[in-house]
Amino acid sequence: MHKTVILAVAMVTSMALVGFFNHNAYAIILPDTTLDKFGINELYPTISGGKEWFSVWDDGIARSFGATTDPQDPWFDADHGSSGPYRTDGAGILKISGSIPRMYVHDPLLQDQWRDVEVTMYFMRVSDTSPAFAGMEAVARSNHGTTAPELDNLCDTRGIDGRMRVDGHIDFEKETSHPHSVPVLNKIQYPAGLPFNVWIGYKLVVYDLPDGNVKLQLWIDTTDGLNGGTWVKINELVDTGTNFGVGGVPCAPGIDPAMKLTNAPDRLGSESHKPNISVYFRSDNVGPDGLWYKKGSIREIAGASPTGLTATAILRSQINLSWAAPVDNGGSAITGYKIENSTDGGTTWSTIVSNTGSTATTYSSTGLAASTTHTYRVSAINSVGTSPSSNTASATTIAATAPSPPTGLTATAVSSSQINLSWTVPSDNGGSAITGYKIENSTDGGTTWSTIVSNTGSTGTTYSNTGLVHSTTYTYRVSAINSAGTSSPSDTASDKTFDVVPTAPTGLTATAVSSSQINLSWAAPVDDGGLPITGYMIERSTDGDSSWSTIVSNTTTTSTAYSNSGLVSATQYTYRVSAINSVGTSSPSNNDSAATLTPVSSVSSTFTHSSENNYVSPPSISSAALVPQASSSQQTTGFGGTLSLGSGISQVFKTGEPIQLTLKLGDVNGPSFIQHIGFHTNFDPSQGSDQNGKTYLLYERGQPLDISDPEHFLSNANVIESQNGNNLEVVFNVTFAKPMPRSDVVVRVWDQYKASSNKVYNNALEIIPALTNSSLQILSEPAENTSQVPNLQTQQTSSLNIPDWIRNDAGSWYNGKITDSDFVNAIQYLAQQGIMKIPLTEQGALTSQHIPSWVRNNANWWSHDQISDSDFVNGMQYLIENGIIRLA
User: Fold this and answer.
1) What pLDDT is stored for residue 467 in this prediction?
2) Which residue, 153, 111, 155, 118, is CA-closest to 138?
3) Cα(860)–Cα(260) distance, rounded to whole angstroms?
4) Which of 796, 675, 787, 691 is nearest to 728 (CA)?
């Protein structure tokens, strides 16, 4: 219960009180006060958590005790003076007897001290034969008689008290060495002496000031506690250490009797080194039940200290403090406050503000860790010094949460395998320090994520992601980590690693196709370095691979074939190829070598050789014929047809049709001397026939047939030989799987001594598609009412009216510069213009599927006028007849 109390000199009419006050009594105004458990005003606020003692004589238990402690109150110790007796009926009053009653209030273990105190006791003088100094007296800041008998530890007997003497005087007394004392401020309070049978309220207040001095106050109430009592201060002293106890007897050499008795816990000069353990009440020559006490209390107070300190956590990192200014400013205005903090419950303290420089009584303690308990105390500062500290107050900061996301993430590629990241710390750390970051990346634009660092374990805000794939875009996000968890991810940032040169081409092969040309073929790089291949560099060596010369610095095409012409015959060349993109040139491919062919003549060889010093002719080719394959009986002789090579008429066969090349060979030494027979066709028209055809059969007698078919024209090939007198008859049985343009046929024969004969048959062989007479379905999928068209018909002229752009398209298509679909559109144009007569049953588009390479070859040759328009159109007819190009 709080109230504002105005204290004034009592103007009473009761004769019993006449003369109770002298002219030194004065009126004062106190701040709001609180009533104690007995309903008595507390002049000074109790320190939060400070010690308090209240008498228990109202506990309903009647008892009498002598030189001992109260059986119901171990803190009330009467074993230091006369043996009493001390009696109470349990209704609230203690009746005292004895010559020197001494009643101590202290910790039963004699450890815990009393500091600044407000001592309250209502007393009544009933019967005594006292000397003048006897009466009502309370002593503070003493160990008197509690650590040893009073005459043993004289430096533990010191104390300060306020007396209301039986002779009507009041004063303060400092006992410096028992039984010696020095009183000060002796005043007459009751001229007729201390009255009998009247309840008088008594308060002794003792507290330290900011300058280290000690203030003493003596208060009385004559209303018997009515409405908390009307308390009047009747005496006050500031003990400076020079004005109180001067001239007293030292308790030990070197101890000044006038020294200030502060509330310090290391009592200066004490033999026991114990602080101010006791507060006690004393009197003298009290008759039986001659002195009565009631409503007694002792409280630790904040006199010159701030009071009412509270601590309230409002954030994860902030606790707000609030307190009240000291009741007593020590005579000088408060100019600021010192604020201390403890994280171990008050065992150790740190000063967080040495001086606020303000009279404000609030403060926000910020920058704290979440979920952390902080204890605070505050001291007032004036021009004299710093007050004792306030009560302590504690609060626990709000629990930490995960941080907010990092911001400002950037990703910067610095090489083909590294991207550097940078970001800004979260604006809110969640109340707990950031301890690391989680880093994720994505290679699909953020659809899926991979954790590359689960926790950096560092507060650093940069990271280098290494070991990456070149020419790849990586997307990143970062999350912050504290003790409470992991934040949501930051915004994303992306960058692409640098492009690089391609990997090397693979599978390089070199094939000699004539005495002056070697064809190269290779596979494109597995990895283009992130940029399109724009060409190839081709190098050649004529010394194996010791030295190299660049024959093409950049083909500027994606074609993976090249014909190296103008070479020296019968010479070996080694090649390597490197790929080029906009970054640079790859490392070289594998090496491959080939030797150009030895030139051959179109007539029989005139070479001769020596045999036992006789010159003879090489083997002769008596006859050669290309015919449809004979019956099995004819195969034994090898000759079953009538068409022969050399007649000037091309032999035209269809795919899938078995063909026989029948040869009759002779040698003057007999057929056994013939060693090698070769059948060569599929020649490059631009190179002539002084070379080996790209498709050939080589028969080394007694060895398996050697077949070269790089363009996969053949589906079957074998050889049969027989002797007929001095002649050797050889039959090559072959079947073509796909059409072959008109080509020369070369037959080569030599004997054991390599003497050879060669015959060239120009334009001797052509393979055309095996077309049927049945109608073709023009829809890409079967249907019940599918329209039919007859076979494609072409103009029977040596040259058709075909635009030049279609010829150009044909060459570009062969070289991969236009797509299948683009070329098919050109064929559709021929059909629509009537150049290729394709009856259309309904309007539709041409589409392409897999187109055989021989058709591409035909297109190339036609674009260079190496085959006729009709031959080219026949190839297109093959595509349509076989459903590769369909009319929808």
Assistant:
1) 95
2) 118
3) 122
4) 675
Residues in Cβ contact with 646 at an 8 Å cutoff, skipping those fewer than 6 apart: 624, 759, 761
Per-10-residue mean pLDDT for the chain, 888 residues long?
34 31 36 82 86 96 95 95 93 96 94 94 94 92 89 92 96 92 94 96 94 94 96 96 93 93 87 91 95 97 87 92 89 93 94 96 92 94 88 91 95 96 94 94 96 96 96 97 94 96 96 87 95 96 93 95 90 96 96 81 35 59 78 34 54 84 85 87 72 83 83 86 85 88 87 80 82 32 29 38 72 74 71 58 43 71 72 72 61
Residues 6+ apart with CB under 8 A from 245: 174, 176, 182, 239, 257, 258, 259
**Rounded distance between C-alpha atoms, residue 164 and residue 545, angstroms:** 126
Angle between helices 820-832 and 804-814 (to 10 degrees): 150
Q: What separation in angstroms does the CA of 290 have from each of 125, 197, 268?
A: 7, 10, 38
Q: What is the pLDDT of residue 671?
A: 85
Local structure of residue 631 (DSSP, 8 states) = P
548 in Cβ contact with 540 (< 8 Å): yes
By DSSP bridging, strand 740-751 and strand 727-736 are: unpaired
The pairs formed by 710-714 with CB atoms below 8 angstroms and a separation of 24 or more are: 710/511, 711/682, 711/853, 711/854, 711/857, 712/737, 712/738, 712/853, 713/682, 713/737, 713/738, 713/740, 713/767, 713/854
Helix (H) or strand (E) holding 344: none
User: Which backbone phi and psi does 552 adopt, to 5 degrees?
Assistant: -140, 115
> C-alpha distances in angstroms, 695 versus 199, 373, 737, 849, 885?
142, 94, 13, 26, 28
Whether 555 and 817 have beta carbons less than 8 Å apart is answered as no
For position 252, what pLDDT does the model report? 92
Q: What is the CA radius of gyration of the chain?
A: 62
853-863 and 869-881 are packed helices; what angle lies between their axes, rounded to 10 degrees?
A: 160
Which candidate, 390, 81, 144, places its Cα nearest to that of 274?
Answer: 144
DSSP, collapsed to helix, strand or coil, labels residue 547 as: coil
Distant-in-sequence, close-in-space partners of 648: CB < 8 Å, separation ≥ 6: none
Neighbouring C-beta atoms of residue 440, cutoff 10 Å: 20
> Tokens 């029977």 sit at which residue?
796
Residues 6 or more apart whose CB falls under 8 angstroms from that of 639 comprise: 625, 630, 662, 664, 729, 731
Q: What pLDDT is recorded for position 878?
A: 67
- Residues 459, 116: Cα–Cα separation, whole Å: 49
**What pairs with residue 476 in β-bridges?**
441, 493
Q: From CA 482, how far away is CA 425, in angstroms rounded?
A: 12
pLDDT at residue 743, rounded to an integer: 85
Under the phi-then-psi rule, with left for phi > 0, alpha for psi from -120 to 50, and beta for the rest, what region is 427? alpha
Which letter does DSSP use for residue 709 in this model? -
Separation of alpha carbons 372 and 397, rounded Å: 5
Residues 6 or more apart whose CB falls under 8 angstroms from that of 884 comprise 848, 849, 850, 851, 852, 878
Phi-psi region of 135 (alpha: psi -120 to 50; beta: other; left: phi over 0): left
* Helix, strand or coil, per DSSP, at residue 837: strand
**Could you tell me which residues are beta bridge partners of residue 6?**
29
pTM flag (> 0.70):
no
Report d(CA 341, CA 15) in Å as an integer.
Answer: 57
Q: Quick one: pLDDT at residue 99?
A: 93
Give the model's pLDDT for residue 661: 86
Phi and psi torsions of 351, nearest 5°: -85, 120
3-state SS record for 410-441: EEEECCCCCEEEEEECCCCCCCCCCCEEEEEE
